[in-house]
From TrEMBL:
GO cellular component, one term: cytosol
Superkingdom classification of source: Bacteria
Species in which this protein is naturally found: Paenibacillus donghaensis
Molecular function per GO: ATP binding; hydroxymethylpyrimidine kinase activity; metal ion binding; phosphomethylpyrimidine kinase activity; pyridoxal kinase activity
Family of this protein: Belongs to the ThiD family.
Enzyme Commission no: 2.7.1.35
Catalysed transformations (reactions): pyridoxal + ATP = pyridoxal 5'-phosphate + ADP + H(+)
Keywords for this protein: ATP-binding, Kinase, Magnesium, Metal-binding, Nucleotide-binding, Transferase
Name of the molecule in the record: pyridoxal kinase
GO biological process: thiamine biosynthetic process
GN (gene name): thiD
Boundaries of every Pyridoxamine kinase/Phosphomethylpyrimidine kinase domain copy: 14-261
InterPro entries according to UniProt: HMP/HMP-P_kinase_dom, PM/HMP-P_kinase-1, Ribokinase-like
Amino acid sequence: MPKIIKTLTIAGSDSSGGAGIQADLKTFEEYGTYGFSALTTIVTMDPDQGWHHNVYPIDAAIVAEQLKTVFAGGPVDAMKTGMLGSVEIVRVTEQAIRENLQANVVIDPVMVCKGEDEVLNPESAQAIRDLLLPLATVVTPNLFEAGVLSGLGKLSTVEDMKEAARLIHQLGAHNVVVKGGKALGGDMAIDIFYNGTDYTVFQTAKIEPAHNHGAGCTFAAAITGGLACGLSVDEAVAKAKDFVSAAIRNGFAFNEYVGPVFHGGYRLEQ
Ligand SMILES: Nc1ncnc2c1ncn2[C@@H]1O[C@H](COP(=O)(O)OP(=O)(O)O)[C@@H](O)[C@H]1O
Ligand SMILES: Cc1ncc(COP(=O)(O)O)c(C=O)c1O
């Protein structure tokens, strides 16, 4: 029997299956790891209201109970966070990471859903910045989230992304990936990786149609899977970029509103 490699996601449920805890667990499986989970929020999307997202946070005490269950086996090989939903849940997450001496922590500072343009909960965004960034092996903000965390506001160039990455690194995150994704203008999907010394640019041609619902969650889960399997941070980010690109290429139109990634796309292309 090979050694079981353990991964954990602390994230919300996306019933449409592309993002959230569903994306994370599917991606962990693709990496050959055993996925644990603690559910933080339930998100629904309403076809009668133009696919408007409703977000229902779970009681933080129940999140804490789930984490007690997960960590009863000791720390996992790598973990990630996604949508956390309330300041209390951010605190519970911080406490679990500290108490269990958990290493290889990927923080995906989810603040918005694609297609929605308001920060879900500004206080949670601040708590992620203050409490979780100092614990992050890697943090993976999208363009909007990087603007909020860095305090720079709207980012629109690669130079802006680099400056945001530098400022977010100063907040305590060991490595920062600012995702330009669909939000950055131009033909390329550009991500900037900063390790406190050097910048690396990861880029691919933008894939059209952009079936990228869940791309951010899948990218962070893939980095987590890579770290759990023993890759260095640079290697894990490089492989995650290939993994998420394949997931977008193999995504599909679910309905008129949304096109999720297919998490098994990378395997299909090998
Ligand atoms: N249309 C696209 N073509 C290729 N890569 C994309 C596309 N959209 C997003 N990506 C990539 O998917 C990953 C997730 O980015 P993004 O979608 O911006 O994150 P989020 O889901 O957090 O908003 C990044 O590596 C980004 O560059
Ligand atoms: C539970 C949950 N987490 C995270 C996200 C963010 O998804 P994405 O990876 O597309 O940024 C969503 C978006 O709908 C969601 O429902």
